Amino acid sequence: MLTLQATLTDSSPGAWNHPRLRNMKAEIYDRRHPPARFAQQHLMVKRGEMAAGVASTISLRASRRAQNPIAAGSLLEPIRPRHHPARVRLGPFIQENMERILVDWEAFAKTLYPPGAKMTPLALRDHAQKILQAVVTDLATPQTRHEQAEKSMGRAPIVHNAPETAAQTHAVLRAQSGLDINQLAAEYRALRASVLRLWQEKAHTGPEEFEDVIRFNEGIDEALAESIKFFSAQVDQSRNLLLGMLGHDMRNPLNAIVMTASSLATLSAGEDISEAAMVLIRSGASIKALLDDLVDFNRTKLGLGLNITLREIDLTKLFADEINQHRAVHPESHLELTLAGNVTGQWDGERLQQVLRNLVSNALAYGATGEPVRVMVEGGDDTVRIAVANRGPVIDRTTADYLFDPLQRGASAHRRSDRGGLGLGLYIVREITRAHGGTVDLRSSPEETVISVCLPRDSRPVAAAGENELAASS
To answer: What domain count does the chain have?
Structure first.
């Protein structure tokens, strides 16, 4: 005996004219089933008695006979309704599947840390749930096409004095835990992929769902932008604090070394001791110059500005002393100093020495070997011009545009020595010049390269204005 059950849920009349159903009726009739029984078995399946969406079961029993077996392929197969995924909007889906999404986030975040790192699940998840809640809230907020276009270009309205967002706090904590900016971005990329993959498996996509995807991506991108901005600020702040501590803490031991070397140089302890002492003094002067640049760079990046103390200064003796120190440190170099006109004014003498030191060091590092470095100081009616010229490779306009930016250096192929600085020298020159109300100019030709600093003779009005601006900002 063979039992066949078929569940019909299609209420259309055409479904009852299925070819296999007609064939089965004929086969059953040929096997001499009593007509009354046949009618009784199919009483429930009469056409028109099935309402829409109501299931009916036909139970048929047939005996196999050796002389006329029923082929398995002729049996009636169930007719099932076409299945469509449910219409699930992305916002409610994220809410309902939050834990599963967070588990994926936690698993990926764990791969970003070294194997031995002791990170708790709470630390790995960090602010992921709050970030997703913010995205869900954004999805539920009505948005015009104009607002959407503005947000996509990073011009969303900025709420001043607003509390720190979850994405911003997340960035700071990730920076403090040792992740880099690429790993931070990878977290968001994995989060985006995880949510959309899980949602695609569950939901039917239509116009409304497509709009959800667009807005979800906007929300993730906005959170990522907030995180990157705060992450970069945290890294910059940590670096500047490190540089500040480095510059401050190294000055005392450096001064002790230089003072000891100076004492040794004055002793009649032999030529070898005197020469070693001079090497220490020259090296200490170089390190001191680097530390001064570091401290100044740190102050400008922290928004503190440069310390400028103005008084009446005569550049004649000031610059002569500085050139003599360079000659002692670089005895093989050929330095020329010429002064013309009135070279006195209201300036910070130590700062202008620093300007000259950095300009001459740069010229010695990139100038042609054996060629002189010329320092020219010329006083005008209301200004004084300081120029340092050297022969060497031509500096193209593109390089000249960024040469005064911090942590930038010229082409290494043009350097006469591998012992380079930090790329802060010309940046400090520019900042000191600006603090005095002056300007910096660079001209380069096959004949020579000239960097000029033009200063007002009296920098007191500029310094006073800078102090007022700094006080107002703080």
So the answer is: 3
Looking at this protein, which amino acid is placed at residue 414? H
Domain boundary, last residue among 268, 302, 336: 302
One domain, residues 330 and 349: yes
Is 322 in the same domain as 251? no
pLDDT in the model for residue 284:
80
Prediction pTM value:
0.52
Same domain, residue pair 120 and 207: yes
- Asked whether residue 65 falls in the same domain as residue 138, the answer is no
177-206 per-residue burial string, b: 16 or more CB within 10 A, e: under 16: eebeeeebebbbebbbebbbebbeeebeee
Q: Please give the residue that has the higher pLDDT: either 363 or 30.
A: 363
What are the tokens at 173?
A: 């904590």
446 and 321 in a common domain: yes
Please tell me the distance from the alpha carbon of residue 408 to that of residue 401, in angstroms, as a whole number: 11
- Within a domain: residue 81? no
Backbone angles phi, psi at 390, to 5 degrees: -150, 155
Smallest Cα–Cα separation from 134: which of 230, 223, 225, 228?
223
Residue type at position 425: G
Look at residue 66 in the predicted model and tell me its pLDDT.
40
- Among 197-201, 358-362, 383-387, the minimum mean pLDDT is found in 197-201
Cα–Cα distance between 336 and 397 in angstroms, integer?
A: 27
- Give the pLDDT mean for 183-199: 90
Mean pLDDT across the chain: 76
Both 146 and 182 in one domain: the answer is: yes
* CA nearest neighbour of 319 among 290, 285, 354, 291: 354
Sheet strand arrangement including 335-340: 335-340, 373-379, 383-390, 449-456, 439-444
Tell me the mean pLDDT in the region 33-56. 42
Q: What is the pLDDT of residue 64?
A: 41
Parallel, antiparallel, or unpaired for β 2-8 and 311-314?
unpaired
Give the pLDDT of residue 276.
82
